[in-house]
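Hi everyone, sorry if this is the wrong subforum. Our group has a chain we'd like a structural model of before ordering constructs, and none of us has done structure prediction before. Sequence below.
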Amino acid sequence: MKKYALNLIPFVIVLGCIIGFEIIGSEVLPDGTLDEPFFLIPIAFMFFAIGIVGVIARVISIYIKSKQSSK
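Answer:
Right subforum, don't worry. Here is the predicted structure as tokens:
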């Protein structure tokens, strides 16, 4: 397993949240309230941010290792 595969996990979860939100769908109940899986949207944003931070950390780590090995 490649080292970068760990950085893909948050993005896969984001995709799952978005697909789950679309599959579950929204509906208006007889009493006029909206029933939707809104909790999936902030979870997707949170995991997207975690994924971006992980990618940035990986890029910085690779940059630092390349600078150390070139000395």
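For your construct planning: The beta strands are 27-28, 34-35. The mean pLDDT is 91.
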